[in-house]
Structure formats: C-alpha cells, structure tokens
Specification:
17% strand, alpha+beta, Creatine Amidinohydrolase, Chain A, domain 1, Creatine Amidinohydrolase, 2 domains, seven-stranded mixed β-sheet, three-stranded antiparallel β-sheet
C-alpha cells in the first residue's frame, strides 16, 4: 500500500479517482486453457494483488484504497477453487474495503460523490469495461479506446488517461527499500539458477535443457515465474541478441551465453553470464571474455548519482575500441573508429536499462536513464559479438572495412559473442551491485573453478 500512497500523493492536485485494473486471464487454446497469469506491473506496484480479474479504486484526497474483485459463479470453486470473502480479500491486500466489480457504480455514488474525474490507464481489463462505462459514460470509453488522452461525457464523471501512467512510471523509477529487497531476493535465486546451469552443462546437451535447469533451480529457490523468456545461446547463437529458440546442441568448444532472470513478488532479476561448455576457456575465448569484463568494470566504477548515462556509455564504447585495437581486431585512430561506428559493429545494443517490475522497467524518460539518481536500479551489460550480418555489412563498406583486420575478425566468428550483465542499485554515495551481493561469480577463473568443483562432466 505504500506505493499507492506515493502515487496518490503525487496525483492529489489532478483531482478525481484513480482506477487501475490488474488484467484478465489470456486465452491460449481450446475452450478453457489459459496462459499463466501475471498482473499488470502498475497494478502489482499499487496493490501487490496477484490474482486475475481484480482492479483497484484509489482516492488521492482521502488515501482510501478499495479493491474491486470479480464475482465468480459458486460452481467455479469446483474447478479453480473459491475466492476468500470480501472482508478477507480487503485484509489480505491492506485495502479499506473490497467490493464486487458489478457494485462499483453504486459504491462510487455512496463513497465518492462529487468526484468529477476518473484517472485511468489507456487500457483496462475487458470484464471491467461495463463498470467503467457506467461511471464515465459510453462516449468517454470509446474515446479512450480510440486513443484520445482526455474525454468527457454527459455522465457525472470524466474519464482521463492524461496523468496516471506517466505518474506511475515516475514513481516506479525510484525504488523503495521493500522493492530493493525484492530485487535482491530475485538476484539471489537467479544467481543460484545460473550456477545450476554451469553444473549441468556438458557437450551434447540441448540449449533448452539448460533453460530447464535454470527454471528448476529458480523454482527451488522460491521464484515461481521467470521475468522474461530465457536466452540460451551456444556458439554462434550467442551472437543473436534476443535468441529464444534454445533448440541447438551445445558443442564441446562452445561458449554459452545465458541471459535469464526470475521474479520475486513480480520484481525480476536480469543477469547474463557467458561460460565455456567444456569448463575451460580457450585463450581466444578468454581474451574476448576479459575484454567484456574490463568494459563492465569500467562502467561500474563510475555508477553514482549525477552521472549522465550517455557519457558513461560513450566512455565505455571508447574503451571497447581501444581494447579491440590492442587485440589486433581493428586498426586506425580512435577518432576514425568512432566516426565510422565500428563500436556498433561489435556492440550494437546499449549499456543497460532500468530494472524492476518489468525487465526493461519504466521511468518518466523511458527504459533507459538519462542521469543516474539514488534509488535507480539499472543493468550494466556490455557485450562483444561477431554477428554475420553486421560483419558482412562492415566488410562491404569501404570506410568500415579499412578499419577492420579481416583475418582476425573471421578467426573469431565461431565464438559467437560474450555478454556480462549485473543488476546495480544506485546509492547516495555510489552503488551496490545486487548480482555480486547475491554471490554470482564473473571472473573467468571463478567460473572455471566453480565448474571444476560442481560440473557433472568434471
């Protein structure tokens, strides 16, 4: 409820009531098969309620929190189990009251008479539309569905989507102590799951079997849902940024890149580690791995309040070019390499993003920070990849081709890619690396030592 208080406090001058839906079950196939439910992140932030079909009504002026529950047929208990009573639901959620969705209009008339505005998100659960329609008028509902940001109707309440989403995003960017605790718990369980994959990996295993090892270990650690689809890329598949097929066989000389995180109370970790399938890095693999590690160490050493993210990213890219030059992969001056965009041939993605209820979390400036502030939780995830498409384009571009040492680049094509990603809290005087606090190794020697001690093939 503390997050509801924060959000309503910021919206008190906007006037009106706040209405947020948690979402409904999404149909998968057949008559009654649904995807596993996860509430909308904004609803989870405000209420902590995890069941489908719920909504909430908040009064910024009085701080009154009303939970809106679906009224399910009595026979539903035979198939899915019954819901607690309204009083029990209110107590569990810390709400002042709990009502059924069908009673929402009359409840508002009794308890919130005189309110002229309903603040809502652009989209809300289908089964709640009738209640909102009765509150705000059919004309306003249609305006929201067509993309209008503010509308009025002949009804007693105007429906507005102009303020709520941006306010919630601004609130969610700065994490409370409770949220940080959830993210640390997610990091602990996800770190254990990553190490379980190291223990299970052996040449000939399938990528999806490593994914299964991660999900099993995360569940054993008490994390019931993954934060996003696992990326398990062996060999050349490690060069595919959002590779989710996870169907290939792991070769004996492959590096395996795994980007995976699980949720604790809907807050997700987002950790990437790259490890050798054999348990030992080759000299070539270690060179690239240590290059990426040096990039991350450079960036992490500079994470603190007030730092401009774009400047941090640029200095990290300059270091990338210097390191590639030292390894004999590129040539030319730093200015020429930068001007030609050679850094983006090898690292086409950004340095990181916000993290929280969403893996690419929200803020008032989007998923990527502009300037770091205490309470931000971000990822720091440099990488180096040898992507066939980007290399082909670079070799075909006279300007870029003149700056690449082609034999050295082509000799690394089979390696695929390396990414190292940690989750980092910005503190008042610097930062706290949540991934390292969770005991997640990342030095090449540490990975080899762990695999030697725990891997089934060692």
């Amino acid at each position: 409820m503390i997050h509801a208080c924060i959000a309503t406090g910021l919206l008190i001058h906007a006037g009106g009531l706040i209405y947020v839906s948690g979402g409904d079950l999404q149909h998968r196939n057949g008559a009654d098969v649904y995807y596993k439910f996860r509430p909308s992140s904004n609803f989870a932030y405000l209420t902590g309620v995890t069941e489908p079909g719920f909504a909430c009504l908040l009064d910024p002026e009085t701080q009154r929190f009303t939970l809106v529950a679906p009224k399910v047929p009595e026979d539903a208990a035979v198939w899915w189990g019954g819901l607690p009573s309204l009083d029990q639901l209110a107590e569990q959620a810390g709400a002042d009251a709990c009502i059924y969705a069908e009673d929402l209009p009359s409840y508002v008339q009794r308890h919130h008479a005189g309110q002229a505005q309903l603040l809502a998100l652009p989209h809300f659960a289908q089964h709640q539309q009738q209640a909102v329609q009765q509150l705000a008028g059919l004309q306003a509902l249609k305006a929201v569905q067509s993309g209008s940001t503010n509308s009025s109707s002949a009804g007693q309440i105007q429906l507005s989507t102009a303020f709520l989403e941006s306010t919630l995003h601004r609130c969610r960017a700065t994490k409370t102590a409770a949220e940080i605790g959830c993210l640390l718990e997610a990091s602990c369980g996800s770190s254990a799951a990553h190490k379980a994959m190291w223990a299970a990996c052996q040449p000939g295993i399938k990528e999806f079997q490593l994914e299964a090892a991660f999900a099993h270990a995360a569940g054993q650690a008490g994390l019931m849902q993954l934060g996003y689809p696992c990326i398990v890329g062996a060999g050349r598949n490690a060069a595919i940024l959002h590779y989710e097929r996870n169907s290939a066989t792991v070769g004996p000389n492959d590096l395996v890149l795994v980007d995976a995180g699980a949720e604790f109370r809907h807050y997700t970790a987002d950790i990437t580690r790259t490890f050798p399938a054999s348990g030992k890095f080759t000299a070539q693999q270690r060179d690239i791995y240590n290059l990426v590690l040096s990039l991350q160490q450079h960036a992490l050493a500079r994470v603190k309040p007030g730092v401009a993210w774009a400047e941090l990213q640029q200095s990290t890219r300059h270091l990338l070019l210097e390191q590639l030059q030292q390894l004999g992969i590129v040539k030319g001056s730093l200015a020429a390499l930068t001007e030609a965009g050679i850094d983006r041939v090898f690292m086409p993605h950004g340095l990181g993003h916000f993290l929280g209820l969403d893996v690419h979390d929200v803020s008032d400036v989007g998923p990527v920070p502009e300037r770091l502030e205490a309470g931000h939780v971000i990822t720091v995830e440099p990488g180096v990849y040898f992507m066939p498409l980007l290399l082909q384009r670079a070799f075909s571009d006279p300007k870029q081709a003149s700056l690449l040492v082609r034999p050295a680049v082509e000799a690394l094509a089979e390696l695929g890619g390396v990414r190292i990603e940690d989750n980092v809290l910005v503190t008042a005087d610097g930062h706290l690396n949540l991934t390292m606090a969770a005991g997640m190794p990342k030095e090449a020697d540490e990975i080899e030592a762990y695999m030697a001690a725990h891997n089934v093939q060692q």
